[in-house]
Amino acid sequence: AGMNGTAISNFACVIFNVSFMNCTWNMGRTATEDTQYFLYWGPLKNENVTECQNYIKDTCGRHIGCRFQNVKIKNNNPYFLVNGSRSGQSIQSYEKYIMLYKIEKLTPPLNVTVNCTEASRRCSIWWQPPRTSHVENMSCFKYEIVIEN
Questions:
Q1: How does it sit in the membrane (predicted)?
Q2: What pairing do the DSSP bridges indicate for beta strands 9-16 and 20-26?
Q3: 88-120 residues labelled b (16+ CB within 10 A) or e (exposed)
Q4: Residue 69: its H or E element
């Protein structure tokens, strides 16, 4: 597809609260008000690719992102495609594969417990690891603790 400068930029996705995913992008440099973008994604490039059902829109009604629910990310490296059109003409498309586990924002640790003993001048801190959709072995998590007076 032609029309240089019309492809989107800064395509990024984030998974949060275990199964929600937001993908966003910037309009192409030469995008006009009648430019519209469409996001498709699926497990493989030519297989079961479906269109976004819940677009995020700018003030002109142009699509600048998508909200997904119930995203499962077991060993998943799906294909993303953003196609566009301007006054009925196809414009540059954008393609990307994303390892979903790499874009998951983990929830904070739960039930943080601190137990200090004056005699030994020591404190112990415990917590529960976050809920996550892809890590089954809880020893995979590392936390950094900052203690302030």
A1: Single-pass type I membrane protein
A2: antiparallel
A3: eeebbbbeeebebbebbeeeeeeeeeeeeeeee
A4: none
pLDDT of residue 1: 44
Distance CA 84, CA 38 (A): 6
Q: Domain map of the chain by residue range?
A: 9-102
Q: How many CA atoms lie within 13 A of 92 on its CB side?
A: 14
- Has domain 9-102 been given CATH number 2.60.40.10? yes
pTM beyond 0.90? no
The residue assigned the tokens 């976004």 is: 52
Q: How far apart are CA 134 and CA 122, in angstroms?
A: 35
Assigned token pair, 48: 């079961």
Q: What is the DSSP letter of 108?
A: P
Most confident of 9-18, 40-49, 84-93, 138-147: 9-18
User: Could you tell me whether strands 79-86 and 63-68 are parallel, antiparallel, or unpaired per DSSP bridges?
Assistant: unpaired
